[in-house]
UniProtKB/TrEMBL annotation:
<protein>
    <recommendedName>
        <fullName>UspA domain-containing protein</fullName>
    </recommendedName>
</protein>
<feature type="domain" description="UspA">
    <location>
        <begin position="26"/>
        <end position="158"/>
    </location>
</feature>
<comment type="similarity">
    <text>Belongs to the universal stress protein A family.</text>
</comment>
<dbReference type="InterPro" id="IPR006015">
    <property type="entry name" value="Universal_stress_UspA"/>
</dbReference>
<feature type="domain" description="UspA">
    <location>
        <begin position="174"/>
        <end position="300"/>
    </location>
</feature>
<dbReference type="InterPro" id="IPR006016">
    <property type="entry name" value="UspA"/>
</dbReference>
<dbReference type="InterPro" id="IPR014729">
    <property type="entry name" value="Rossmann-like_a/b/a_fold"/>
</dbReference>
<dbReference type="Pfam" id="PF00582">
    <property type="entry name" value="Usp"/>
</dbReference>
Length: 305
């Protein structure tokens, strides 16, 4: 069943409703209708991975910047935008998901976060064209701002950078996971994501990096023992697990492990809210999100009640 109605902002929304099925978890997929977005949204393997972790409903969101108008005379951008969303919607619905589309106007990352809260999304998916050949710390501005402000777990899906018709770089989103931990509450919260990721996960590498700041902390529990506890949990779910303890700069070492094991996705936790202005990533998480070759799954603090 397909239902259309204008929301409180006068925006057309479409719901493909399957009332006899449980909706499951909800994912918000942000798209600018570019080739990069299309690569992630229409990839059958990526969609299958989302289904494996329990996603039943996908909210497709595109944000029209406030300074963008409907188009030049003879060019109906609103219609072309809706046609693009309809095409994505049909592909996703054919894969067995409930689909709702949203077209809103404003600042992209703010509107995406707002809709994620409104629909109680369990995660947000955004595409990024990966590392820039000129400056490998640069990711798309919307992806970067979402990483710093997201209110729900964020999956940054990497796609080929230079290709005219790009493909995703790691289409099995959660099949092979690299989990980085400093044993903080933020990292423990990120590890809890395995409670719903594990049906799609076959292999996991758990890594802890000793930095210069850890000097004098040797009297604490052995990091290998702590990683082994996590590994036991994952192996109980049938996930083949290995552990790594390294020394050096945390971000550099995590990315070196990524290069060695080529995981589908790196899972990291972010820190809490800045008292100064907005949610900020810890420096290590920010480096990993910006520089990782593959996908990154960022787990933020819980929503404020």
């Amino acid at each position: 069943m397909s239902v259309r109605w204008p929301d409180s902002h006068g925006v057309n929304r479409t719901l493909l409703w399957k009332p006899d099925e449980e909706p499951g978890m909800r994912a918000l997929c942000a798209t600018d209708l570019s080739a990069a977005s299309e690569a992630a949204i229409e990839n059958e393997t990526c969609l299958d991975c989302l289904g494996r972790i329990g996603i039943g409903t996908i909210h497709l969101v595109t944000v029209v910047p406030a300074n963008v108008h409907s188009g030049m005379p003879g060019i109906n951008l609103d219609r072309r935008r809706q046609q693009g969303l309809d095409r994505y919607r049909d592909v996703i619905a054919a894969a067995g998901f409930e689909v709702e589309t949203h077209v809103v106007r404003g600042t992209p990352y703010r509107r995406i976060n707002g809709i994620a809260e409104t629909v109680r999304a369990d995660l947000t998916v955004v595409s990024s064209r990966g590392q820039s050949p000129l400056e490998n710390r640069i990711i798309g501005s919307t992806a970067r701002n979402l990483a710093r402000t997201t209110v729900v777990p964020l999956l940054v899906s990497r796609v080929e950078r230079e290709a005219d018709d790009p493909d995703v770089l790691r289409e099995h989103l959660f099949q092979r996971i690299l989990f980085a931990t400093d044993f903080s509450e933020h990292a423990d919260r990120a590890f809890d994501a395995f409670s719903y990721l594990h049906p799609a996960t076959e292999e996991a590498t758990l890594v802890h990096v000793r930095s210069s700041k850890d000097a004098g902390a040797d009297s604490g529990p052995d990091p290998r023992e702590r990683l082994a506890e996590h590994a036991g949990t994952l192996e109980g779910w049938g996930i083949e697990t290995r552990i790594e303890v390294r020394e050096g700069d945390p971000a550099d070492e995590i990315l070196d492990v990524e290069a060695d094991v080529t995981p589908s996705t790196v899972v990291v936790g972010s820190k809490g809210r800045s008292r100064i202005r907005r949610l900020l990533l810890g420096s290590v998480s920010e480096e990993v999100v910006a520089r990782a070759a593959g996908n990154v799954f960022l787990v933020p603090p819980p929503r404020a009640v």
